[in-house]
């Protein structure tokens, strides 16, 4: 069915090396008008690198790119855009100007291309931005600085900008990683609509359920090479097999932990100002899952427990001792490990190595006299790299040289090394591949000395990792489900229905 469609974009034997690393080893693929091509692969498989080559931001070290059958050299994003190729990159923050307004960010490609004239007035920019935002960015203030938006809104700004030029090829590199289920569903509908109008779409995601739902065809990459090609009807199991090369992907749990003594006790807390009272208890060895749409108050609640924002109401105790952190350091001192939602901004230190990043909360352990023992640190890091399956050139690799998902594993992994009493993880699976997701889930579930609170807006993920799942909406807990008896689709519906209509719009 897709065979007779025009090939609008193709990679022919594309290779890419970064020093010692071979990111791509001779990849060939074709993207056809009117189809959604899924690109899947483990963290570090080369998906983003291929995306960058197709969008002119990286040059291949071998092979070439063809646009509508003609060999081209795309030397910049602008040249790719001229050829009708628009890309929404995985690294959202690198693609936005943080202190510029949403409106300015939306018109950036038009400005660069000189399409708004040499010195467009603020009114012109505002009007053009309003046209681009139209009905795609409800609830986003065009005059706000982009840096003041949450991760999900930043992602939505980038997607709206990508759609604005009505490209003939749209490449989306993990566009849904930071979106909640209702926003994901809306994007899926948009993508199918675009394909129906003849746009070629490349769609990258680690959620195979999404791949199966939106893609016509899928190419799986493994270690920089094509490991399989699949046409609809797609089968998630076969995709997983191609991605992991036959390794077991699922962390299917047999039992649910009921836990030991109470570690965390929250009484009468408020996630949002003036919101309903929240009561919860988490026991040692237990993993409490919290889910809900964006704006439900998950992050606000977690951040209060971690000392990142002031406790609004009620009492909290850890191991029976009253706990009211005024600062993240208070929480760390009380044995609370916290992985924030906005990791790139809050938890990654540019220029640091993998070893530095992993041992950050626990420096005292590696001190010998006044100096840090590099060898002890490297040894511990090497163990963690192995346990988490982090793809990198070694403990001293710069954090920026890792693929998105591998950076994620490092930030989550550090707290396991620190031996925390209470682990608080906000969206720990964002951007990690199916194998790593199982690895992290196993790690979280195996943290028997700690009580764990995990927030995720992805129903599949939360059911995989948690012993109990609380559903939040409008700052309150509106339900509790047992992961053994509820499936992802049912939970997604529950989350959407629990939220007030204006928040799901
Ligand atoms: N600028 C760079 N310098 C050095 N190595 C790099 C650079 N960019 C990518 N790599 C390496 O190339 C390989 C492929 O990375 P890429 O980002 O394409 O993976 P990916 O499939 O997009 O992974 P993820 O699912 O984690 O986003 C990885 O081993 C990565 O560490
Ligand atoms: Mg990537």
TrEMBL record:
Gene Ontology MF term list: ATP binding; ATP hydrolysis activity
Xref: InterPro entries: AAA+_ATPase, ABC_carbohydrate_import_ATPase, ABC_transporter-like_ATP-bd, ABC_transporter-like_CS, P-loop_NTPase
Pfam families in UniProt: ABC_tran (PF00005)
All copies of domain ABC transporter, residue ranges: 9-248, 251-499
Keyword Flavoprotein: no
Database matches in PANTHER family: CARBOHYDRATE TRANSPORT ATP-BINDING PROTEIN MG119-RELATED, GALACTOFURANOSE TRANSPORTER ATP-BINDING PROTEIN YTFR
Name used for this protein in its record: Monosaccharide ABC transporter ATP-binding protein (CUT2 family)
Lineage, uppermost ranks: Bacteria, Bacillati, Actinomycetota, Actinomycetes, Micrococcales
Keywords for this protein: ATP-binding, Nucleotide-binding, Repeat, Transport
Keyword RNA-binding: no
């Amino acid at each position: 069915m897709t065979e007779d469609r025009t090939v609008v974009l193709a990679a022919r034997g594309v290779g890419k090396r970064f020093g010692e690393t071979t990111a791509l080893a001779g990849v060939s693929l074709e993207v056809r008008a009117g189809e959604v091509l899924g690109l899947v692969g483990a963290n570090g498989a080369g998906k983003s690198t291929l995306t960058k080559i197709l969008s002119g931001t990286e040059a291949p070290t071998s092979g070439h790119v063809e646009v509508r059958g003609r060999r081209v050299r795309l030397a910049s994003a602008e040249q790719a855009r001229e050829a009708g190729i628009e890309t929404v990159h995985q690294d959202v923050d690198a693609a936005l100007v943080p202190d510029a307004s949403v409106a300015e960010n939306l018109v950036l490609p038009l400005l660069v291309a000189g399409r708004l004239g040499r010195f467009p007035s603020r009114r012109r920019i505002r009007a053009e931005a309003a046209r681009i935002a139209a009905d795609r960015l409800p609830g986003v203030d065009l005059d706000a600085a982009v840096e003041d938006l949450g991760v999900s809104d930043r992602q939505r700004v980038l997607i709206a900008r990508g759609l604005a030029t009505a490209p003939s090829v749209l490449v989306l590199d993990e566009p849904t990683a930071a979106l909640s289920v209702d926003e994901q569903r809306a994007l899926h509908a948009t993508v199918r609509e675009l394909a129906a109008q003849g746009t070629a779409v490349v769609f990258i995601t680690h959620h195979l359920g999404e791949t199966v739902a939106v893609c016509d065809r899928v190419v799986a990459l493994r270690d920089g090479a094509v490991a399989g090609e699949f046409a609809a009807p797609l089968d998630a199991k076969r995709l997983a097999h191609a991605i992991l090369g036959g390794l077991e992907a699922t962390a299917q749990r047999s039992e649910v932990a009921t836990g030991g003594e109470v570690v965390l006790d929250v009484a009468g807390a408020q996630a949002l100002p003036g919101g309903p009272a929240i009561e919860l208890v988490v026991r040692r060895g237990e993993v409490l899952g919290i889910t809900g749409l964006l704006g439900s108050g998950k992050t606000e609640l977690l951040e209060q427990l971690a000392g990142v924002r002031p406790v609004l109401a009620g009492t909290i105790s850890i191991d029976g001792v009253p706990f009211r952190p005024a600062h993240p350091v208070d929480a760390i001192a009380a044995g609370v490990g916290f992985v924030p939602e906005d990791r790139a901004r809050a938890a990654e230190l540019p220029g640091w190595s993998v070893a530095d990043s992993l041992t950050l909360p626990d420096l005292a352990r590696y001190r010998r006299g006044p100096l840090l023992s590099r060898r002890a640190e490297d040894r511990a890091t090497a163990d963690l790299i192995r346990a988490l399956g982090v793809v990198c050139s070694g403990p001293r690799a710069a954090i920026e040289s890792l693929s998105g998902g591998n950076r994620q594993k490092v930030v989550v992994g550090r707290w396991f090394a620190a031996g925390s009493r209470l682990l608080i993880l906000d969206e720990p699976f964002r951007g990690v591949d199916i194998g790593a997701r199982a690895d992290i889930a196993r790690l979280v579930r195996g943290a028997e000395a700690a009580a764990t609170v995990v927030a995720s807006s992805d129903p599949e993920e939360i059911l995989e990792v948690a012993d109990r799942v609380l559903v939040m909406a409008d700052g309150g807990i509106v339900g509790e489900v047992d992961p053994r008896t509820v499936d992802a689709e049912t939970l997604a519906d529950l989350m959407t229905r629990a939220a007030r209509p204006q928040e799901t719009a």
